[in-house]
Design a protein that fits this description.
The structure holds two protein chains of two kinds. Helices cover 39% and strands 17% of the residues of chain A. Chain A is of the alpha/beta class. In chain B, α7 links the parallel β7 and β8. Classes of the chains: A alpha/beta, B alpha/beta.
Chain lengths: 387, 308
């Protein structure tokens, strides 16, 4: 897959529209929901949106087929939002998924959901327990890809939640079942259990799903591993899991990994052994950066870790938008973040421009404005670099 | 043997939904407060028979967030991972030179420790505070001395209430090296608190092997020490101080499986080699809110039945 310099893309999720959420949950849609669908349809130039508005005006009691059509439209809206913002590489921001953890785990065997736990603030996620050896019935991202491919005008990427994150975000009732607290060598017993859990999710679920996407024609696959650095003693396990998840597909497609809100120092040097297997590594940077303009290290303190990529072959996924604030980064700030990164990396073709993470906690209005400015900032940087 | 449930207890599914609805302007503050009261009431009922009742801290978003209101210039924005979990806190930061707003502390205690709870000020209760190193590791721009001063002022007021105990959470032991200067300040903080009151003061470690810090931890002037027995074996108790209580982390916050009778009986036997039964409190091996409410409730009930 050949891509030009300073490629822009979104990382993961977008918020789900109220009309999609209500229609799928069985709640009553109001006039304001239909009005919102209309406003965004006009703004994003959605074709045949009158059909959607007519469907939504039913208000409630949607059939299975109607719900599928509503999801298809929400996918179209999300793709168009990214395309209209000017991104180079698009997908639909999880419109087919509940979220990045719950969706894949619900497609797997061997897990049950037990309730919600806090992610941060008042944000919670539904957490599952592994009760049996994990497996799956049929590949669970292929249908989603088919829908997106039928709607997108631009190139497509598909994110897949990685094995390490699935394991780290799940409770373990199966592999840890026989561990007795306080017993001699408790740490070693736990680590052994963890390695067996990781190996089974990787080999039984994640690699076969990535292979299915590749066989289906997907050539840009993002492995989401926000949990990668969570447990410092398990970095080698995470690296091995990634190697096995890509396996014999290395070099045949573009593989990116997304990690965020983590202590990235922990990944080095182990992650360097994935050169030649993994093409791009994307981190969150803007969250830890200042909002001041400038291309010096003091102003760009969030980008310190970039030094680690010097002398590697990795492409650098550069988070330039803070996804946890409504602050709209001015294009000039995005520009300076890119220019600073380019000073360190020394090759704009190695820089991939994106938000820090998915934008699901922001409104569409905020996400759209942030992404438009990101593209504008990329254009300013390209101009400054004479591209 | 008994049970203690300090810290943030998991919110119920109803409260999780209510906070989400409140954040999205779908319900009023009074509706949210009604649900908080219900959570507190259910949690209080669950703790019937325990020596110290915990409030659950259901309004707290993390153990540092309330401190924004008593540290001048403090704010919390950047997300920071809470040790090696998938829970994130917001880094507590201070613009300019940090200073404590002492005039606000009494109201602050009322709000955050008694606010919407159904506890009387004379009830036997266990309060929870972050200890020094946890505080430092999840904040920026606040000198350790200021943190110690702040914790001392608050802790002294908390232990001055009748029938109270105080539990400090400190997962940084074993997570990173604690410097000699930090150790000195930590010890001195605890000494000052202990001097001010006869209330029981506990310090509990979580998540990490503490072998390398055992001598220091055991030397701390506290009445009880917490140890996570899913990363430490009971052999670490060889030099456990005879006069102290043990807060044994045996409720596994990484598994939804209820602790089996066999595993609890097994650790009880192992503990008996080192500590008399009446000096043992069972606690979760990490913050209780790492599990969903229903599961944690079941684990507590299950443990109660096993140890009775």
């Amino acid at each position: 897959m050949t891509l030009a310099a300073l490629v822009t893309h979104e990382i993961g999720s977008l918020a789900k529209t109220p009309w999609r959420l209500k229609a799928l949950s069985g709640a009553q849609l109001g006039e304001s929901d239909v009005r919102e669908a209309k406003v965004w349809a006009e703004r994003l130039k959605i074709p045949d949106h009158e059909n959607l508005l007519k469907l939504l005006s039913k208000g409630h009691g949607f059939s299975k087929e109607e719900k599928t059509e509503i999801v298809r439209y929400s996918s179209l809206y999300a793709i168009r939002l990214l395309e209209e913002a000017g991104l180079d590489l698009v997908w639909d921001g999880e419109q087919h998924r509940v979220e990045m953890y719950e969706f894949p785990v619900r497609q797997m065997n061997g897990f049950i959901f037990n309730g919600h736990v806090r992610s941060f603030d008042n944000k919670y996620y539904c957490k599952a327990s592994c009760t049996h050896t994990p497996g799956f019935e049929k590949p669970f991202h292929v249908n989603e890809y088919d829908v997106i491919a039928s709607l997108a005008k631009k190139r497509i990427k598909i994110p897949v939640t990685g094995a390490y994150t699935i394991v780290d975000w799940s409770y373990d009732e199966h592999y840890l079942a026989s561990v007795i607290p306080g017993k001699k060598a408790i740490r070693e017993s736990r680590h052994e259990a963890r390695k067996r859990f990781l190996a089974d999710v990787t080999q039984n679920v994640i690699y076969p799903n990535i292979k299915a996407l590749y066989d289906h024609g997907v050539r840009y696959i993002q492995i989401d591993e926000p949990a990668a650095t969570t447990k410092r003693d398990e970095i080698p396990d995470f690296v091995e899991t990634t190697r096995q998840s890509i396996g014999d597909l290395a070099g045949k497609a573009f593989f990116s990994i997304h990690i965020c809100f983590s202590d990235y120092e922990r990944l080095f040097p182990e992650i360097n052994s994935l050169q030649g297997i993994l093409d791009e590594i994307h981190f969150e940077y803007a969250n830890r950066d200042t909002r001041e303009l400038g291309v010096d290290a003091k102003k760009r303190k969030g980008y310190e870790i970039l030094q680690k990529f010097k002398g590697t072959s990795f492409k650098v996924g550069l988070g330039v938008l803070d996804v946890h604030t409504d602050f709209i980064e001015p294009p000039e700030l995005v520009r300076d973040r890119i220019l600073y990164a380019n000073e360190i990396i020394g090759d704009p073709k190695r820089l991939y421009i994106a938000p820090d993470c998915g934008l699901r906690t922001r409104t569409w209005e905020v996400s759209y404005e942030k992404l438009k400015n990101m593209v504008e900032g990329r254009n300013l940087a390209a101009k400054a670099l004479g591209l | 043997m008994n049970i203690l449930l300090p810290g943030q207890y998991p919110r119920s599914e109803k409260l999780i939904a209510a906070t989400r609805d409140y954040d999205r302007n779908r319900i009023s503050l009074s509706e949210l407060n009604r649900q908080i009261k219900e959570d507190v009431s259910d949690f209080k009922a669950l703790q019937k028979g325990l020596p110290y009742l915990s409030q659950g801290l259901f309004q707290w978003q993390d153990l540092l967030r309330p401190f924004i209101h008593i540290l001048n210039g403090a704010y919390a924005e950047s997300l920071t991972r809470f040790y090696e979990t998938n829970t994130f806190w917001r880094l507590l930061e201070v613009e300019g030179k940090p200073s404590i707003n002492e005039a606000k502390i009494d109201d602050w205690i009322d709000t955050y420790f008694f606010g919407s709870s159904s506890f009387a000020k004379t009830d036997p209760m266990v309060f929870t505070l972050p200890f020094l190193y946890l505080f430092k590791d999840h904040s920026r721009g606040i000198p350790l001395e200021t943190i110690a001063d702040l914790l001392e002022k608050i802790a002294k007021k908390l232990v001055a209430f009748p029938n109270k105990s105080l539990c400090f959470f400190e997962p940084s032991f074993g997570w990173r090296k604690i410097s000699e200067e930090e150790k000195k300040l930590g010890k001195s903080l605890l000494e000052e608190i202990k001097k001010s009151s006869d209330a029981q003061v506990f310090l509990t470690t979580f998540f990490f092997p503490i072998d390398s810090e055992l001598e220091f931890i055991f030397s701390l002037p506290v009445d009880g020490i917490g140890i996570d027995f899913y990363v430490n074996s009971t052999s670490c108790l060889k030099k456990f101080p005879k006069e102290k209580k043990l807060l044994a982390g045996v409720l596994n916050t990484e598994s939804t499986l209820l602790e089996s009778n066999e595993s609890i009986r097994s650790i009880i036997e192992m503990l008996r080699g080192y500590i008399p039964d009446d000096k043992v409190f069972f606690i979760p091996n990490g913050p209780a809110e790492l599990l969903p409410r229903d599961i944690m409730d079941k684990k507590v009930k299950n443990l109660k039945e096993i140890i009775v």
